[in-house]
Every structure is written in C-alpha cells, then in structure tokens.
Specification:
Epimerase_deHydtase; 12 strands; aldehyde dehydrogenase (NAD+) activity; Rossmann fold; three-stranded mixed beta sheet; 324 residues; alpha/beta; seven-stranded parallel beta sheet
Length: 324
Amino acid sequence: MLLVTGAAGLLGNSVLRAATARDLPARAWVRSAASLAALEGLSGDPIIADIATQDIERVLENVSAVIHCAARVGIGRGDGAAFERDNVLATERLARACRTGGQRLVFVSTVDTLRWGTPDDPGDEAAPTERARDTTYAASKRRAEAVVAAEMALGLDAVIVHPAYLIGPWDWKPSSGRMLLAAVRGPFGIAPPGGNDFCHAGAVAATLLDLACAPARPPSDRYILSGEAMTYAEACRLMRRVAGRNPHVVTAPEPLVRMAGLAGDAMAALTGREPVVNSAAADAACRPHHFTSARAMAEIGYRPRPAEEAIRDAWTWFRERGYA
C-alpha cells in the first residue's frame, strides 16, 4: 500500500490517479475534510490527519512507501512560522516515522533549493555554492531536505525529488494552473522577462510511483524532474494558442515588474498580509530558472513530456470543469 500526502494538490492528485491507472493500491492523505472534493472518482477511504501535530505512526501500518507531496507553497518572505510548521516540522515527523516503521519515503522538494541555471547552463543536483535565495518557501524546503538527509544517515530509505514548474490536469485549487488561466484572459498576453522549465505533472507523477515501487533504492539520493525550457513570454504565447486565443504577448520591462513587487511589499507592511505580487516573486519572475534532468533520465527512466501536451491537457481539464 502506498500513501500519498497532499492528495488534493496537483501533483498528489496526479500520483493517485496514475496509481489507479496501474492498479496499484494507494491511499490519499489530506489535512482536512475540506479537501475531499478533489478526490472525486478515487476509491478507498482517505486519511484525514495533520502530519505536523497528530499521531501518524498508526497511519503508516501496513504501508510500504509514502510519497510526500504535501507542502505550503508561496513565493515571498512572510509567514515564516507557517512554512516551518507545514514544510519542516511535518517532514521531520514523517521521515522519522518512516525510518522507524521501515517505509520508503519519496520526498517532493523543489528546484528552488538548487542553483538556478540558464538554458545553456542549467542547474543540476549539486549543492548550490551561491547565496541561497531568501524566499520563505525555498528556505523551508531546504531545511526539510536537511531533516530527510539526517534521517537517511540513520537508515531511512528515501529519495528527494526536485520538480520544476508543473502543468497538467487535476489542478483543483488551482495552483500552478493559475498562470495558464491568467495567460489566456484579455485581448493579448503580458509576461515577465524571466523563464522556467514547464513539465507535465503526469510525467512527474509516473516517476514518483516508479521510485516508490522500485525493489531497491535508486543509485542517487536526489533527482531533478524538469521539463521544457521556455521564457515566460514563450509559455504565455503557447498557452494562448492552445486556448484558441490571439497569441500576441507583450514582455513587461524588468524595472516595471520589480516596481510592482516593491509596491506589494509596501502593501504587506500596511496590511500585515503579503500579496502574491511582492519583491521576492518579482525577482523570481525576472530571472531564468532552468535545470537539467539528465541524471533522472539516465538512472531512473524519467521521460519529460512536451510543454504543449501539458498545457493542452490542463486546458482541457479546466474547460471541462468550468474553470474557464
């Protein structure tokens, strides 16, 4: 039996549906009953438990592996205590429980903890030598990786994966699909000057299942699961074309994007709530953000799927469920 945390999120939901397609026994794990709507069409009773606070040892009985997708995600510098609780403490408790219970742990981190590269010089799994980016999310994920590594040193059977920008169906909230929904609105698109690697959530989900079910640990402790390198303008243009919109896209000047981020910081100072547009998010939007999956492709058979396929599948799913 597999357990999938964060089962209401894009990746966790994709893992569960991929497991169903393979006839693999897998069970959803969510933090609250409010997330149950995302489990539509899946069999089996979900587990409802807060990893950071509740007894989880019993949950792991008769479980062979846990795919830990659950996380608090956001690009900013606020809510440090919440990120620490949901991303670090929860992962620490789960990793310790898996080591004690003998379960394999597939821990989903993020490429944001690694060196950001360019299309010509992509980042890889090596520890970054440059100063770490100071988003609260990236810092919490880096600490979560450290607690998993510490448990691995004590005998935990685990692997850390670093997905890039996920696109695909089953994005109930939506999460990363908000970029797609925003890109297709209006008479033309507006994109920041940076870039990212866009990968199909289904391809990443398939690899997570392979890692969870493999008879032996993979050769390496961590893998990047990346996708197609594109500028945000290229991605926006593709999204609009897939949706049948005018593909004209304007790239916003970097100074204007950064000014918007500073305005968001000022708003946060006044209200106590950090908006989605803030200086950390603006900095990320202005930079290239590219990585290589060469190790994952060679060692564990990861096969990225084209960005257009990911966008088309996501758009079809959003349309069918009335998001657009």
